[in-house]
Input
Amino acid sequence: MGSPGPYRPASSPHRRLQLLLVCAVMMGGVLYLRAGGFQRRARPAPQPRAVTPRGDLTADEKTTIEIFKQASASVVYITSVELARSFFSRNLLEIPRGTGSGFVYDPNGHIVTNYHVVQGASAIEVVLADQSHWEAELVGSASDKDIAVLRIDAPADRLKPLPIGASHDLQVGQKVLAIGNPFGFDYTLTTGVISALGREIESFDERTIQDVIQTDAAINPGNSGGPLLDSAGRLIGVNAQIASPSGASAGIGFAVPVDTVNRIVPQLIRYGHVVRPGLGVVPFMDHYTRRLGVKGGTLIDKVTEGSTASRAGLRGTVLRRDGRIIRLTQLGDVIVRVDDVEIENRNDLFNTLEEYDAGDEVVITYIREGKRQQKTVKLQRIK
Output
């Protein structure tokens, strides 16, 4: 016979107790589930949180809000179209040319904007703050200052001219506000400070616009022609350009100073163009002047017959065409100084003369055949 196996008791009181406990737990679980024991406890319905009182607005916030309320009624939205003939049907089509901003200049319906907003437009529409639409006519423009004046036939009670400020006494750090229609989002307010003064930007005819205001107030496409305001709500500039690699605001915007605007807008309204003092000479473009070997000053191309420059004896350049070859016969006078202001290029001459009035006499220093000479010339009125 083999040895018996290990002893295994058939049952014991301790094991029976364990089985009873397991059965009791299982029965309790079943009863708990039937009674909905795993259901979430009832919770109160969510309610909005209590609003924390903020107190009064700051004085600066109140001022900004009030300026916007007052000035936005003067800001307008401008759209322009260009007429073009269809190549296939020969029908005239209206092609959207651009959008921009502007502002009411006077109660006679004159609207000021940038020249580039309406350049080449066949039809122009102005939308006032009350959302009324008006057909506009171009009264006058100054491309070298990027300023244009429109006129709408709106009643005076719908027109609110902006208060005019000054730009000659501005200071870097002053708060400024810009209102316009960037990317078509009408009546957008941005704020910032004057970042720099006395900047120069290039206009659309390669002339420079001087004493330009630089600001970090956000200016984007569509802001062009809108007002730049000081903290008193006065117009101090017309937003014109931005410096940006992406085409959107990079914190460097430029505005034509209001002193320039307020000087030329009455002329645009009266004459349709800017009336300037001049000599009656046509200088060469700078790159051509340098090609002819002139290293400084501005070279006279032509002298207008009967002009004050002609009567003073200033002379232009004579070029002779030999077939396709242009030969220099006579080099004109090179203007290097007006009174005590040095003239380095064509822009210097134009910008310096604009500081005078027609009828003023100036001393012109010029170089002729290598010799420095002077003439006193009375400035005449030119377009």
